[in-house]
């Protein structure tokens, strides 16, 4: 997969390395800007409030 | 080896599809020795050079499978065996390719998860602290701009918007920073690096109410992690809430290190779990516990000790000054 991408990048090793870096940074940007903010509320890591969760309150 | 190669010579390109499997089966006893050798070399080829050498491995397979002595009568004698080996090689190469792509996907998934941890524990803090600082400064500027009000929180000027920020929470044993408190506990509020006071399931009381429970929540990790060190609060520690005109000085008197996330009774106007049975002016801090999870809730209760009017210089009350020296 990555080998395939590497072979299909133009230019010499230096140019390919630079393009690869740009691609990686682009992917990281997409993840941090769009995908993680979207995914985070769906994951149960950051609920800090007490709520009744649709059930009877109190324990 | 020689006999096998001679017998296989008659195979023409048209017939090669049918005789090969039979040949292979018949020859298997005789060709046992060279075949594994060829396999091993092919394997070695695949292993070391991987998918990069798709074109070269085929030729490598054919040439290596032929023994050095056979080189004289190469081309036609070697071909069927070479093709058989090539077919095996194609299957193996496909498998190797699939395995390598699968492996790369696994590595990618691991890298994405690692990045998610970086995002959760670092990047959200960066963003939230920026936002909280900006909003906090806006609130303080708003306070400074409206000096001409009557000094009573209950009749604050019209510019007062609880969603912009009600005031600042100071808990010196937990954090040296002041925490902006806004209205609401939705994630889009709390993710701004602030604490929010409950508007549901229980409507929080306001600090200036005669009695009731001022209940706030904030993140333990990520998004500013304002209550990250809530476990440092001990009974007797000051919890100070600063509004435009008043310092509300509470003392922590009860701590519930772990409770159910559905335990909304902790927000009651008289939080009986803290041992109180009479109405009073309470404050409740809630966040998640243990650290990095949302399994349970950590609760700190405080009771109002006294209030102090904010002077023109906004000098800190005695309870906070003690910690300034440290």
How many helices of chain B? The count is 7
Q: What are the secondary-structure elements of chain B, in order, as H or E?
A: HHHHHEEHEEEEEEH
Structure classification of chain A: mainly alpha
Helix share, percent of chain B: 40-55%
Low-confidence stretches of chain B: 1-78
H and E string of chain A: HH
Total strands of chain A: 0
Q: Could you tell me the strand content of chain A as a percent range? A: under 5%
Multimeric status of the protein = heterodimer
**Spatial gap, N to C terminus of chain B:** 88 Å
Number of strands of chain B: 8
Largest sheet of chain B: 8 strands, mixed, barrel
Could you list the spans of chain A in which at least 5 consecutive residues all have pLDDT below 50? 53-59
Shape of chain B: elongated
Number of helices of chain A: 2
Transmembrane segments (chain A): 12-36
Keywords (chain A): Membrane, Transmembrane, Transmembrane helix
What is this structure's SSE topology?
The complex is a heterodimer of chains A (59) and B (326).
Chain A: H1 2-8, H2 13-39
Chain B: H1 2-8, H2 19-31, H3 34-49, H4 54-65, H5 74-145, E1 167-170, E2 178-183, H6 187-190, E3 195-197, E4 212-217, E5 238-242, E6 246-259, E7 281-289, E8 296-309, H7 318-324
Parallel strand pairs in B: 2-3, 4-7
Antiparallel strand pairs in B: 1-2, 1-5, 3-4, 5-6, 6-8, 7-8
Helix pairs in contact in B: 3-4, 3-5, 4-5
Q: Which key features would you list for this structure?
A:
heterodimer, A: mainly alpha, rod-shaped, B: 326 residues, alpha+beta, Sortase, Chain: A, 2 domains, eight-stranded mixed β-barrel, 7 helices
């Amino acid at each position: 997969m990555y080998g395939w991408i590497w072979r299909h990048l133009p230019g010499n090793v230096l140019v390919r390395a630079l393009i690869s870096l740009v691609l990686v940074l682009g992917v990281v940007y997409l993840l941090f800007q769009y995908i993680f903010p979207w995914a985070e509320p769906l994951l149960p890591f950051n609920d800090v409030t007490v709520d009744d969760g649709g059930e009877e309150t109190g324990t | 080896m020689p006999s096998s190669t001679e017998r296989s010579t008659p195979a023409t390109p048209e017939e090669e599809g049918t005789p090969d499997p039979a040949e292979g089966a018949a020859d298997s006893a005789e060709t046992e020795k060279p075949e594994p050798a060829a396999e091993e070399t092919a394997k070695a080829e695949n292993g070391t050079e991987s998918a990069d050498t798709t074109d070269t491995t085929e030729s490598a397979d054919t040439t290596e499978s032929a023994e050095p002595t056979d080189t004289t009568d190469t081309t036609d004698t070697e071909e069927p065996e070479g093709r058989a080996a090539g077919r095996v090689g194609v299957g193996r190469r496909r498998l190797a390719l699939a395995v390598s792509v699968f492996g790369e996907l696994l590595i990618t998934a691991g890298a994405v998860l690692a990045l998610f941890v970086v995002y959760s524990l670092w990047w959200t803090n960066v963003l939230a602290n920026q936002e909280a600082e900006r909003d906090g400064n806006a609130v303080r500027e708003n306070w400074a701009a409206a000096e001409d009000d009557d000094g009573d929180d209950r009749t604050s000027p019209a510019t007062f918007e609880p969603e912009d920020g009600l005031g600042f929470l100071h808990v010196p044993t937990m954090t040296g920073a002041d925490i902006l408190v806004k209205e609401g506990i939705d994630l889009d509020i709390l993710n701004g690096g602030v604490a929010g006071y409950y508007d549901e399931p229980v409507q929080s009381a306001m600090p200036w109410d005669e009695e009731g429970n001022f209940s706030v929540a904030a993140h333990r990790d990520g998004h500013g992690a304002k209550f990250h060190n809530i476990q440092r609060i001990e009974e007797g520690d000051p919890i100070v809430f600063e509004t435009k005109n008043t310092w509300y000085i509470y003392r922590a008197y009860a701590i519930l290190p772990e409770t159910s996330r559905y335990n909304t009774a902790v927000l009651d106007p008289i939080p009986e779990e803290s041992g109180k049975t009479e109405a009073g002016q309470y404050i409740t801090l809630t966040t998640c516990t243990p650290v990095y999870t949302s399994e349970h809730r950590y609760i700190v209760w405080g009771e109002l000790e006294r209030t102090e009017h904010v002077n023109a210089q906004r000098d800190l009350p005695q309870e906070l000054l003690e910690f300034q020296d440290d």
